[in-house]
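Predict the structure of Putative membrane protein.
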Amino acid sequence: MEAMRIAALMAATLSMGLVAGIFGLYAHTIMPGLGRTDDRTFVAAFQAIDRAIINPWFMAGGFFGALLFTILAAVAYLGRPALPWIVAALVLYAITVVITLAVNVPRNDAIKAAGDPARIDVAAVREAFGEMRWRSWNLVRVVASTTAFGLLAWALTLSGKSG
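Done. Here is the predicted structure for Putative membrane protein.
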């Protein structure tokens, strides 16, 4: 039972770290890089990147995996000293998921649905996308998911001390 408990917490920690890293990569590399491009390049590249990220590795292993593994870890650690840290991580990541689904995904879907950049008004599409709003909310996701990762790492430390 102890091995399964630790495995759940490790899976939560690893998947949370992966997701935090992805959001961080968007914040410090992808979006600043795209921000320096012309409208056609921005729209085409963002469409391609967003289509590529919707894959089983990211969706199951990262984005939803972090949520499910953290829930599993919380259940596994009921009544244990690490539980408050796991629950705090879960709350922060739940906020991240809500932000993603309420703010970022609708913008991503709209830019993809706009159509072929060679046939649309790319300046209007980019403006409607709301680049600064997307980036601002992504920064909230970075802070929340990175903090959740740190909390899960601390929970692992506590688990090792009490186990």
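The chain has one domain: 2-162.
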